[in-house]
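Hi L.,

As promised, Adenylate kinase:
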Amino acid sequence: MRLVILGPPGAGKGTQAASIVDTFDVVHISTGDIFRENIKNDTELGKKAKSYMDRGELVPDEVVNEIVVDRLKKDDVQKGFLLDGFPRTVNQAVALDAALEAMGQKLDRVINIVVDKNLLVERTVGRRVCPKCGRTYHVVNQPPKVEGKCDADGETLIQRDDDTEETVKTRIGVYEKQTSPLIDYYKAQGLLLDVDGSGAIEEVFESIRSGLEQEV
Ligand code: AP5
Ligand code: ZN
């Protein structure tokens, strides 16, 4: 299956992506994770992306498009993929369509996680991540077994630099202006699967699973 997961910052894209890739055996491609990995390794790409990310703004389309198009050409992607955090602008969506068409492929579904705006700040500001394995937690909604430590490897959890209340508000504004037009873009293609993302993590996944198992 070739999938995209859409939704505002903190909607639960990364959280749901972990279950989707396990259940549907597809490769998880998160542009946010690719940038954070590059920042950690202090690469040229990381240096370029960091200033945009810290401000809550989008990395320029031409930078992101090239990375994703290259990634889609790798062998492991043949079994199917879940794009998380890409596309984020209509320009990126058009570039994705063109790249897939050139490979004789097309998207199967676009999962759109719908969450009330007032939940987003609480979810992002309370998020904690493991710098070693990348697992995501939440201080209230999804706490680790031992406070502040990753369940998998005991590593001390950290807060993302862009998860401050001020930056999250900027990111939500950027989403509304630049990314939300993609909802109509994919609706027009008959690909959109709207999912209520306000319930518990397992409930949201159940809606995604049953939606994906239905024929379009
Ligand atoms: P990116 O990493 O993609 O961040 P985002 O889209 O802002 O999304 P988040 O990772 O904040 O949220 P999420 O929806 O994955 O939520 P999560 O599952 O963690 O992008 C970061 C930056 O990179 C961008 O600002 C931009 O600068 C740059 N970038 C990336 N891609 C780009 C692109 N294509 N073009 C240009 N620039 C790009 O959940 C959040 C929290 O809520 C967690 O703590 C979780 O435990 C909790 N939670 C999740 N689900 C539930 C639930 N159902 N109930 C209760 N709590 C929940
Ligand atoms: Zn860990």
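The first strand starts at residue 2 and ends at 6.

Thanks again for sending the construct details.

K.
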